Amino acid sequence: MEQTFVMIKPDGVQHGLVGTIIQRFENKRLRLVRAELRQLTVEQAKEHYRDLATKPFFNDLIAFITSGEVMAMVWEGPHAIKAARSLIGATNPLESPTGTIRGDFALELDSNIIHGSDSLESAEREIQLFFPNLHPAKSVS
Ligand code: IDP
Ligand code: MG
Predict the structure, then answer these.
(1) Considering the entire predicted model, what is its pTM?
(2) How do residues 49-85 score in pLDDT, each as one tens digit?
(3) How far is the CA of 116 from the centre of ligand 1 (A)?
(4) Is 124 helix (H, G, I), strand (E, B) or coil?
(5) What CA–CA distance (Å, rounded) separates 127 from 85?
(6) Beta carbons of 66 and 40 less than 8 angstroms apart
(7) For the chain, which residues make up each domain, given as ranges?
(8) How far does residue 23's CA lie from ligand 2's centre (Å)?
């Protein structure tokens, strides 16, 4: 059993896609473990996207992801990380096939509706960042 972090970005929330997206994940037989509407701080956004800090679009990405509420979620199931990425589609919506969330609901790279963890390592890091009480970090004392 695997868990992954999925986040509907401000454009997806504003366009009323929360229900549709949750339905697609449920149809795939993934199980919703946590969900919360959140307004991210700039600090949280920078930590979430820290691997992209050197990219030229980083500041725009942080401004966009903090521009409105996001729906932060944890989904669980066998191969949940890969299954979620498959439902989400390619980073560039124009290269994401119809039938994927980005292929169906997005047009532009910088507003592509939804985030999903890309590896076990990032899933664990992102779940810990957004829902630290789900798997409390072990005390090092
Ligand atoms: P992913 O969301 O498919 O995992 P990443 O490469 O991790 O793609 O990039 C994170 C987010 O940064 C993307 O979802 C997209 O919103 C934004 N992004 C990625 N590449 C570009 C770019 O070249 N221009 C503008 N925004 C980008
Ligand atoms: Mg990514």
Answers:
(1) 0.96
(2) 999 999 999 999 999 999 999 999 999 999 999 999 9
(3) 11
(4) helix
(5) 16
(6) yes
(7) 2-38+70-130
(8) 22
Residue to substitute in 5, 50, 61 for testing ligand 1 pocket (most ligand atoms within 8 angstroms of CB): 61
Select 2-38+70-130's CATH number: 3.40.50.10490, 3.30.43.10, 3.30.70.141, 3.40.50.970. 3.30.70.141
What's the token pair of residue 71? 């729906």
Copy the structure tokens of residue 110: 């910088």
Residue 111 CA: nearest ligand 1 atom is 16
| β-bridge partners, 17 | none
Residue 5 CA to residue 11 CA, distance in Å, equals 18
**Residue 46, strand partner residues:** none
